[in-house]
Amino acid sequence: MKIGVIGDGKMGKRIQEVVQTYGDEAVTLTSSLIETEAFVFTEEPEIMIDFSHPDNLEKLLTYSLQKKLPLVIGTTGYSSEQFQKIQQAGQDIPVLYSSNFSLGVLVMNQLVQQATAALKNWQIELIEKHHSQKKDAPSGTAKTLIESIQEVRKLTPVYSWEKQPRNDDEIGVHSIRVGSLPGEHEVLFATTDEVLSIKHEAFSNRIFADGAVNAAIWLKDQPAGWYQLKDMLV
Length: 234
Known about the structure:
It is an enzyme of class 1 (oxidoreductase). Its EC number is 1.17.1.8. Catalyzes the conversion of 4-hydroxy-tetrahydrodipicolinate (HTPA) to tetrahydrodipicolinate. The chain is 32% helix and 25% strand. By secondary structure, the chain is α/β, with parallel strands linked by helices. The strands form two sheets. Strands 2-1-3-4-5-11 form a six-stranded parallel β-sheet, with helices on both faces. A five-stranded mixed β-sheet has the order 7-8-6-9-10, with helices on one face. The model has no long low-confidence stretch (mean pLDDT 93).
């Protein structure tokens, strides 16, 4: 299978490597994303994986809709309006979006929801760490974890505060950017004299690339629709 890979950063290059290990072929754009106004690949892809930048969304959707190509998106930092456009594309082509393609993070979201439901009166804090070159904060994975919590309890995320105590109806969100950390997410549940921590650490971006390629292989045989990573496990 020919898999079009959009994005030539760390993740894009890692995905190209992983595609080859599966016996498939990674095809890339003939010119840089900044220079091109419309996507042109070295060969016609059968499906596309995007790990680039939110600014490329219009070109990405235009090409995939014209060619009727399934689309896997791992780019983070989209606005709510851009998310609506991605979901609308799912009416015509298969689209799978995930802020994190790790199976461990998928299970972490489920565990966080269970803990939130069981520990109804406990305070919750979220800490996420990434390399210093990551552009968005909090991370897309952190936002997904917050959404998982909010599905159970109506708590408000707080990203900065000064000289005031934490309210019980808030989630403190802490973003750390340093060095070359691949990614770490931890959700703390705390009450008097007791703390429960649910934590995931990534030691290589290969786990995300592997998950994205597996998602592409699965998505190719799906009908038009809006999909999430958890749909692969049903």
